[in-house]
Amino acid sequence: MRILLVTKKSPFPSRDGEAIALRNMMDQYLMLGWQVDMLCMITPKHPYRIADQPEQATYNMVRFTEVYADTSPGKWSGLLNLLGKWSYHMQRFDQPAFRQALAVLLQERNYDVVQLEGLFMLNYLSVIRLKSSARIIYRSHNIEGNIWKRLAMQEAGIWKKWYLRIQADRLLEAERHLQDQVDFILSISVSDVSAYRQYSPKEKIAYLPTGFDFPEPGPPPTRPDIYFIGALDWMPNIQGLRRFLQEAWPVVLETHPDAKLYVAGRHAPVRFEEELPDGVSYLGEIEDASRFVHDHAICIVPLWAGSGLKIKIVEALATGKPLVTTPVGMEGLPSGLEEFVIVEQDTGKMARRLAGWITDWPVPAEMAGRASQLVRHSLSNEAVQGQLKTILRQWNLA
What we know:
Blueprint: E1 2-7, H1 17-31, E2 35-42, E3 63-68, H2 75-80, H3 88-92, H4 96-108, E4 113-117, H5 125-131, E5 135-140, H6 144-154, H7 158-178, E6 184-187, H8 190-196, E7 205-207, E8 226-229, H9 235-255, E9 261-264, E10 280-284, H10 289-295, E11 298-301, H11 311-318, E12 323-325, H12 327-330, E13 342-343, H13 347-360, H14 363-379, H15 381-394
Parallel strand pairs: 1-2, 1-4, 2-3, 4-5, 5-6, 6-7, 8-9, 8-11, 9-10, 11-12, 12-13
Helix pairs in contact: 6-7, 9-13
């Protein structure tokens, strides 16, 4: 079988959740013995050329095609979008050069399957239907409209809230309309599957998480410090972290004035370091994320907006880190984990329970060990490979 993966970014370097998910999907099809091509959009936000990344050296069996596209949002183009009815986010990723490159590939090679990675790649459905008889899989990383809907709920500014609500509604409408035009939907998050089944037949929708080769968890650090890792140019991350620092962190400091929180992530807002409260250190983008996670104790993922499976949560749990998050953060994870982690919507309750963990350390590390076992069983590459084989047989693609 020959498959073309169509993506809005490169799978290399595999440092953020989306890039990890893209690389793992490529790995899963290669393990099946399929021939894999990938068409990647290279953007100012993710400008990494595949040829420049050391990781690509082990993928000489994959044919990569790159197209540069400027998808940067603009103030005036965002306002002008209000005159129409289409999502501004979809509009930004509808790129003529990318459309042309896709058409060329479809003419050159006879693909059995074309897989569109993420909602914005559904812009190119018409090209695929015109140029190919391939079956089309939409791999949903999350429900984009839900992310922006939640961001709107968290926004204090009246006009920005209004604008975000409009864009959220347009994204949800685009997804509902376009999912009818694909043959199959592969959802990374089990919680998103029920949303798709409201509008599409059950048999065309399947759940397939990202798989992992998990390292062995190390011993817990002796000091119960706290860490956050994530891209700070992704609005749900920075919005959630700021809310945690403003509402939860002071409560932690009341009982543990020497508590330490280490923040790692690229592209922080201007003057971000100046707004940090006592006990919080910003380390910027770090070279070795695995070492950073290993060296610190308790992971916080304060997300009040977002959707899909959060890979940084999987990595934290798998390596035996106690986790503090929200119901949004838990979406997409295997069931049964709730008893081993702190899951709170309210920042006050979150802070008090976190402070309790610091007091009782290392008891939370023992609980995290049980969560690690559950995650490793459900989300290993071997488990995901078995799920993919079953799905493809059901869809008559094996």
